[in-house]
Amino acid sequence: RPHSRRQHRDARTMLPLLLLLLATAHGLDKYTYKPKLVGSTLGGRTTATTFVLEQPRCVFSQDQAVIWLVVTLSNAISTFNDTVGPGTPERAFQRFPVNATAYMTLNTTLLNYPCPKPPGEIAVLRVGSETTCASDESRPTCNGPLPGPGPYRVKFLALEGTEPVAETDWSDAITLRTAQPLSSISAKDGHHGAGMIALTTILSILFAILLAGLVAMLVFWGSDACDSSTFSKQEAVSVRRYNTHHVYDQPAARL
């Protein structure tokens, strides 16, 4: 049994060398270019399900080739086989990573990777941006959302028909963002959170009192201004002048 385990270990050690020899036998050109994330000045370079790569400008020279992006988990690059083509079950996005160790997507030609890059052009590739085909098995080359944080490694592979003709180096490991559980936030920062809640409550009450006082003051000033600007105009009294007639004593009626 120890002998069989040693043979198994030796076979695993020899597998990358065998794959390299197989690629050489097929006339595969290997470029030292290493895919990399865009600069940190571009927002959203990594999210929970996507990452953004620089386009491989001025790398490939095979005009008739179709250039594919290969995505795999970091620990699976040693077993990747270039001769397994895109669109096969072994390279289907929908089977990755449980039943497929890698998938191939974002196929294009050199026409879409002009060299040099036109001035002012943003030359990037967002990996994981397609959501409509994520479960559609009729589209095995879907550029679907990545299923976990990774880490992932990628490379570009050029095919002429089904024949691989050129490839780049593997990228460095790419780890996606993960959301921090709410329970861990409350457990770690519980005291700080309670203090912030109390402070926010006090400030809210003070603000409400201040606002109520301001409204009352405005109402008081408004009513006072109205009183001071209203004059009670006295009604004009028309006094009629009567000329009194002297009443003369009439002689007593003679009886």
From TrEMBL:
GO cellular component: membrane
Annotated source species: Trogon melanurus (Black-tailed trogon)
Record-annotated membrane-spanning stretches: 196-221
Protein name in UniProt: UPK3L protein
Signal peptide: 1-27
Keywords assigned by UniProt, alphabetized: Membrane, Signal, Transmembrane, Transmembrane helix
